[in-house]
Amino acid sequence: MVDRRRFPAVPVLLISAALLFALYQIHRILIPFALGFAMAYVLNPIVSAFELRGLRRWVIVLMMFLFAAGALGFAAGSLTDLVTTQFSSLQVMAPSYLVKSKTLIAGYERDLIRRLPYGYGAIVSKAIDQRLTGPLVDQLENVPTYVLGLFPILSFLLLIPLVTFYMLLDGPDAIDRFIQACPSRYVEQALHLISEIDASLGSYLRGIIIDAFAITAAAFVGLLVLDVNQALAISILAGVCNFIPYIGALLAGLAGGLVALFQYGNIWAFLRVAALFCAIRFLDDWVLQPLIAKQTVHLHALAYLLTLLIGGEFFGLAGLIFAVPVVCILKALITVVWAWYSTETQLRQPAMLDAAMMPYT
Amino acid sequence: MLKFIKKLFFDENFREKKVFLRSLDLFKDLSNREVGLLAQSLHSRTYHAGEILFMEGDIGRALFILESGKVELARRDARDGQSRVIFTIEPGDFFGEMALLEQLPRTATATATERSKLHLLYRSKLDNLLHSHPRVGITVMTHLAQLLSSRLRRASAFSPAASGAVDG
């Protein structure tokens, strides 16, 4: 009899549960590492392409970082004024936008009350104040706080490149070390798992980054055409928000629409920007995403939404960003375990070709 | 000076790995760049003496290329249940190639008899190469088909009655 391997289900489940619990406890610390890992994943094909020419990995990575630093320095020099002007203008304009929004709502309110029978106006006015104006204005006042709340992310700006640098430097050696550490008889399974994760996660990450750049560019051009203030800031926001599936596009469209609404003081400006973001979303969903999705993880739309909801519920913004990549890994894990189980238990038999019955000629 | 710069900037291990791979029949028709692509798709692992690479009956998922050391292939005899060494793999040989075609149970147990360095080519990596660089994939597949044909021809020569072979 041939020795058969039994899947060590209980230890694997216990270790997985302990790992998940530990990850949940320290998930905030892991965010820059996860982002650095994602960045390294995206950049790795460039390093591999140069490595193919025989160059040492550290030389390529160092050159890449020096080039990136130079490019960033140049971009900072030429774009600082533009970005500073736009963000300062947003800061200066925020109070006036607030006043305009109050005036706008008050105008609509007056118009509505005028059309209502006598007596109902006071009730509707009170209800609008309590349920719409109050909360809306409260939220608008909080917008600068929300924007400033994004700035802790800037502290990651130092950590993320560092993590990316070391991960790129390690590259395939890290995988070989992992394989080396695997018990010898599980090496093929480990390779299977790595290949599956690499296939779905790598292409998903590369896909969304290309997508984010495309959306930033499209939004910037569109907002310039519509002559909306803070076009660059809004389009960068649109690109960054694209990392948060579905909700991201809504957030960016809302931000752009509100800026246009306050700038022009009429609802048509808001609708024009909303239409622009709808068009971008449409082009993204129907043209770009299918191109990218060909090589990325295929999740059912409902599973996709459920993933985001669960991620958001447990981990907030980080959950929304990382939910899909984590599902990519889990999907790869399930695929590998199922392939292993089905072949080891011989649930799936290899096909015997009819032509195999013919003699060898 | 030039030699020093070259040594500093260029990866000698990668060059040696390519030279080694090109010495194998399986990859002999590939260009320098194509061998480089293949080298990037391989994973390396060092096995200690006595370590089992895979066992008879395990589902095969990778091709093994022995760079250094020695690996023994043993098969259990159905009559007495004893395991017998059927072949010793030497550096430059490869084995387990059928895993690249079908996920079938291994027909022998592979054990490293001394410290051995092996390169593993996983099936999906070869699939990726087939899609992104068809010439590499096709060359490897052609050599695999030739190897399979040679083995079948050899098996037919040993027992033509059993195989029903009509050797051309």
Helices and strands in order:
The complex is a heterodimer of chains A (361) and B (168).
Chain A: H1 9-25, H2 27-51, H3 57-115, H4 120-149, H5 152-170, H6 172-181, H7 187-225, H8 231-241, H9 247-264, H10 267-293, H11 301-344
Helix pairs in contact in A: 2-3, 2-5, 2-7, 3-4, 3-5, 3-9, 7-8, 7-10, 7-11, 8-9, 9-10
Chain B: H1 2-9, H2 12-22, H3 32-41, E1 43-47, E2 52-54, E3 62-68, E4 71-76, E5 83-89, E6 94-95, E7 109-112, E8 116-122, H4 123-132, H5 134-158, H6 160-163
Overview of this protein structure:
The complex is a heterodimer of chains A (361) and B (168). By secondary structure, chain A is mainly alpha-helical. Chain A is 83% helix and 0% strand. Chain A has helices at 9-25, 27-51, 57-115, 120-149, 152-170, 172-181, 187-225, 231-241, 247-264, 267-293, 301-344. The longest helix of chain A is centred in the first third of the chain and has 59 residues, at 57-115. The model of chain A has no long low-confidence stretch (mean pLDDT 77). The longest helix of chain B has 25 residues, at 134-158. The model of chain B is unreliable at 163-168 (pLDDT under 50). In chain B, helix 2 (12-22) packs across helix 3 and helix 4 crosses helix 5. In chain B, 40% of the residues lie in helices and 24% in strands. Chain B has helices at residues 2-9, 12-22, 32-41, 123-132, 134-158, 160-163; strands spanning 43-47, 52-54, 62-68, 71-76, 83-89, 94-95, 109-112, 116-122. Chain B contains 6 helices and 8 strands. Chain B has 168 residues and is of the alpha+beta class. The interface between A and B is large, with 36 and 47 residues.
